[in-house]
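Table S4 entry, Ribosome maturation factor RimM.
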Amino acid sequence: MNSDDWLEIGTIVAAQGLDGELRVYPSSDFPERFLEPGTRWLQRSAEAEPEPVELLEGRMIPGKGIYAIVLEGVEDRDEAEALRGARLLVPDSDRPQLAEDEYHVVDLLGLEVYHQPSGDRLGTIANIIPAGNDLLEVQLDKPLIAASPEPEPPPTPEKRQKRSKPPKPQTTVLIPFVKEIVPIVDIPNRRVEVNPPPGLLEST
């Protein structure tokens, strides 16, 4: 299988406790991926072949947005820490049925983002950030440059004034992934269209 045959569902970020539990940061919105026992696949590094592993049990850690899971054969903290950074995968054929206006994260990454009112390309989707409403992190083609600050008065003999540093260009922007702001998601043509509210794409 090549990379297109797999769906990433999460990344192991740390050991949980002393008995081999693993903390997993999810890249899937389907809790059953981490709660229901069964076979998953583990990719220890970007170059490694995925290997099957049995998920024995899992639970959500309240308030953290992550899961704690138990994998067969991982029995202590050292073995758990050795898997830090490994990815959990499932076959691409194991996609859950989606409702209308639901999307797999992997299908959204890399889509071109266009400003619907002007037709201009803004950039590409670099990440999906879970929140009350998910946020699209867009890597901008042209960084936003903040307005220049008001000129500072010349320093006086009585007081040396600290000069502010020029603002750094903003290279990404977060766009709420809601229908009103992202009305068009065209997976086959690898593009989305956004209609952001005033100020969202303006530097401050």
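The two ends are 47 Å apart (CA to CA).
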